[in-house]
Amino acid sequence: MEFRRINSLPPYVFAEVNALKLEARRAGEDVVDLGFGNPDIESPPFVVEKLAEAAANPKNHRYSQSRGLPNLRKAVADRYERRFGVHLDPETEVINTIGAKEGLSHLLWTLLQPGDVALVPEPSYPIHIYAPVLAGAEVRRIPLLEGSEAWFEHMEQAFLDSWPRPRVILTSFPHNPTTVSVDLGFWERMVAFAKQHDTFIVHDFAYADVSFDGYRPPSLLEVDGAKDVAVELYTLTKGHSMAGWRVGFTVGNAEAVAALGKLKSYLDYGTFQPIQIASILALNEGDGYVAEVNEIYRTRRDTLVDGLNRAGWEIDKPRGTMFVWAPLPERHRHLGSLEFAKVLLREAKVAVSPGIGFGDTGEGFVRFALVENEERIRQAVRGIRRFLES
Ligand SMILES: Cc1ncc(COP(=O)(O)O)c(C=O)c1O
To answer: What per-residue confidence (pLDDT) applies to 5?
Structure first.
């Protein structure tokens, strides 16, 4: 049978490395898995407790509000005020989504249709390409490897070269997988550009709360007037380490929030109410927990990058995200990222994501996800060092 839409989705490149990892583990090998970006840190215990309590109450077992409970939307607005100095109206400028991914995908249904164009950074987190594709739009991939300034110029050129003019510019900083991060000046330019050219910015801010060394990722909404031309996707997945809970938000432009709300009112009944109730607590009282999570990722980052640098593999330290984006060591560049990832798995017993999985411009790199503990990361460094020295 012929299926629609999913035919445009290519086979998942990461599946190949994943299959090899499972095979090795089945054969009894101890593989350190830094491939899939699935956070391993436990969710805040006080939030888990609240979930259990709320789950025991039958009045929370019914359909909930698709847009999110009013107090949940207020908790997001309060966190934005505290963290970014951004004022959001919980009634019109905040909606709860089933993770950032669901929010992004359905938001793009309301912004794009066949014949429309979206601009997306590449290398890309796969849904950044395929959410516009599934909405029927055409995607222009804008190279990001030379950093955000060069990306802006490429984006500007691509925008002016496109007809029809792109309706959406998708962005995400700190960026997965490249870890490129930006300062507020970047967003000032972006907002001015969107206003001048009458286009819309969708900012996936999944790593809003994961940063190091004093760097604080700015919200795009800190720019005056940004709400006229933009929304931001915020999530409890990374900073609050609540990946499986599926709690995200779309905030900013009230018309876009309303459009997404209308669509979602047909599609779902929102997140299970006990999860929403516990998430209110996470947002209101989780700032200290977020700081702890950051410290854990920073220590892992330093262990990995310092260790690999000492082993002769030169890698820069990211100032945001839970990833390390590494150019292949010179001696192994000829292998390409997929082969190199397989060799690393076989010889060093470490699973990583090959850069090619994030698009052609990701070739020549691999991505480490910092999702095993420090001891295991030390083990990974030892394995890689032995392999590099062999
Ligand atoms: C850039 C980016 N956006 C979104 C997500 C997923 O967020 P959520 O769990 O809120 O859907 C991830 C997770 O890896 C990500 O890297």
So the answer is: 86
Nearest-10 Cα torsion for 280, 282, 285, 288: -160
Asked if residue 237 has its Cβ within 6 Å of ligand 1, the reply is: yes
Distance 310 CA to ligand 1 centre (A): 31
Residues facing residue 320 across a β-bridge? 211
Cα of 337 from ligand 1 centre, angstroms? 23
Q: How confident is the model at residue 2 (pLDDT cuts 50, 70, 90)?
A: confident
Domain boundary assignment for the chain: 9-38+289-389, 45-285
pTM of the model: 0.97
> Cβ contacts of residue 287 below 8 Å, gap of 6+?
82, 83
Matching CATH number, 45-285, of 3.40.1400.10, 3.40.50.20, 3.20.20.70, 3.40.640.10: 3.40.640.10
**Which tokens is 52 given?**
């259990």
Encode pLDDT of 55-70 as tens digits. 999 999 999 988 999 9
CATH class of 9-38+289-389: alpha beta
Burial of 342 (0-12, 13-18, 19+ CB in 10 A): middle
Q: What is the pLDDT of residues 124-143, one digit of tens each?
A: 999 999 999 999 999 999 99
Considering only CA atoms, which residue is closest to atom 7 of ligand 1?
Answer: 100
pLDDT digits (tens, 9 = 90+) for 204-217: 999 999 999 999 99
Which atom of ligand 1 lies nearest, measured to the CA of 125?
1
